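Cross-check.
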Amino acid sequence: MAINPLTSLPATSAINGPAGPSAAPRTAPPGRGDIPFADLVKGMIQDTSQQQFATEESVRKMVSGEADSIHDVVLTASRADLAFRLVMEIRNRLISSYQEVMRMQV
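Predicted model, tokenized:
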């Protein structure tokens, strides 16, 4: 049985690049740097809202007996909860950063 090193796996070659983990400085993925921050946050909030609606719908289906698997309902609720927590953490960090900037003396 041959043991392959981790660098030969396809998933790690995408992370490390062809010459290893420290071959070149990391850059942003192409096409992602041109999105304004406000639009990025707005999209995250809309996505979170859609996930909350999907959770409500799956819970409604479970209560009415239309849902086949409680696992899918719990998974949908967990995804919505995680997305909501992420948005709240970003909000908290933004408020904290704003307050720190406002405390700076000019």
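The helical segments are 10-16, 37-64, 70-103. The mean pLDDT is 81. Passed to J.P. for a second look.
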